[in-house]
């Protein structure tokens, strides 16, 4: 559904003063108790010529949602040449389809996207190197600081290898590379696909300060999922994406969480139209009305009193596959599944800039609009309702649509914080200077305001990176973060703070984050 809104002048207010403490906590997991089977879709391919890389999820666990085209033989690295490229869409195709070419070439530096999967892919770094070299993307390695691989707790005790989940890992890190070549990638490998283990990895990722966390897995919903959602997936200020499932109409967790961005799937094809592409809802994508999860404040569809899947979508149909390199799968393969969309959407959020603290980034899609509306296709039988049938505006299989640039994912009017802030004392004044923020929030920064504390004296610029605050009191001592007296003759400076409009978000839960549950996950 496409909407528009008037542009506003975006400014950045700088306040200098006492240092800001950022406290990050990590919830430790408790043991998994006996679990009961829950009803729901199995994670398997509904198509001939397609293989699901992971077995269906067991009670209390999740399964990866990557599909491989078995009718497209794997090709070795040596067999791929400029005249004979890999089968499937590459970075240029995906960037073109989703109007991200310019953003992918100029944005994302300094942002980190986390990938959460189960088990280890020993060849993750070399697989990533092959993919990026094939498409002319800059190297992303451990040595240059772009790529990191850790266990679910952030350490180096990596789990056992698994071929199916290994293919999923290769797909995920390569899709982030395709959309955001400048982004750093943090791969977290959970000990197992249990709900506790992958949830612990999500918490670890958030504690590392990432912009987005991609979760290309799912399991059946159950009455106990609320406790797991609160313990592992409720992270305001971070774009947490989750794949919708590959078995058609029906819901899965964690995509059904009201705190994540649920990513459905489409079939993507070239077209002779202004966009150059067309999409329909993929028959295999999950969607529907959760029987358990509460409806988030930003959703207003009338046909579901609870959480409706999905929020957004991207290519998933293995009939219109993406190209993936995985040594464990034999080389270059064609892949699909809603696993493709979760890292694509996570990387798109990273291109758009850091979400506002305390906000749920899914709400931006509903406020901003402007996505590619997918108006045809269905993923099952639901009496023809929007829950399983794509149509104009919001629908279950594709949500609000697919990316059309970064505007729908951006916090309008909220640039990042300036850095390297300093103040040089003068006679009843201070020259304040700073470095521009790494994120402009999706649009140009047109001005800054520096404010002293105490006193509230200000100076403004029309985009410059320094100004002089006057009217200060000579002889007022202050101290730096080290506690030593460093300067006199000015009021104490404050740290930067935005002065701009934020996207609305659901009320933030108060109090401490609850400890991880010890009973059945879902």
Describe this structure in words.
By secondary structure, this protein is of the alpha/beta class. Helix content is 16%, strand content 22%. The chain has two domains: 1-20 and 418-515, Sandwich (Immunoglobulin-like); 41-82 and 90-406, Peptidase S8/S53 domain (Rossmann fold). Strands 5, 6, 7, 8, 10, 11, 12 and 15 form an eight-stranded mixed sheet that branches. It has a four-stranded antiparallel sheet with strand order 2-4-17-16. The model is unreliable at 1-46 and 478-513 (pLDDT under 50).
Number of strands: 24
Mean pLDDT, rounded to whole units? 84
SSE-based structural type = alpha/beta
For the record, the CATH class of the largest domain is Alpha Beta
Q: Can you count the helices?
A: 8
Q: Calculate Rg over CA atoms.
A: 24 Å
Query: Ends: how far apart?
Result: 33 Å
Shape by Cα distribution: globular
User: What percent strand?
Assistant: 15-25%
Number of domains: 2
CATH architecture of the largest domain: 3-Layer(aba) Sandwich
CATH topology name of the largest domain, in short, is: Rossmann fold
CATH superfamily label of the largest domain:
Peptidase S8/S53 domain
User: Helical residue percent?
Assistant: 10-25%
Low-confidence segments: 1-46, 478-513
Largest sheet geometry: 8 strands, mixed
